[in-house]
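thread: overnight batch results

M.L. [08:02]
morning all. the overnight job finished for the chain we discussed friday. pasting input first so we're all looking at the same thing
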Amino acid sequence: MPHPVAVNIYDLNGFNEYTHLLGLGVYHSGLEVHGREYAFGGHDQRCSGIFDTAPREAPPPARFRKTVVVGHTTMSPSEVARAVENMGETSYLGCAYHLLERNCNSFVEDLCVELTGRKPPGYINRLARIAVVANQCAPCILPASVRAIAGPTVMPPGMGGGGERDEDEDDEDGGENAAGDRRLLTRFPESSSRIR
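M.L. [08:03]
and the structure it wrote out:
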């Protein structure tokens, strides 16, 4: 039986009230399926940056704007969880987050395609894509603060960025939390759940 797959879109600033009409804005998004909302965020650890929240309850400063049903999936909740876990172990490590090139909207697009074969609305990541192209073609038109963010993506070792990870790269506490979970997600509220 097919299950709906929806993208929950959030405003990250007040300018979206004006720029949304032009198909632009600064947005956060999460993918809702089987009563859970999955999203991606950055942190300094070499573990999954994917987290889940109750649908339409992303952490501040995100303000819910709308839900767009993108399609349907025949995957069960456990199959979706496995797909999300795999993405978190390979492509969406928290330390691989890049504000313009590997962000929450990039994750939602990839997961959307995985589950439905369809992409979410293009406007949710359009401004980031424009900034990347502008930085490559004419960096002088971007403010220095945006040029710094839009610079080349530096991938962590083992993700196509060169050499493998050293075992010495763990934090002072061995890179594990008190429960021994190496996939600790930081910067997310207590209401979020880490993806194991």
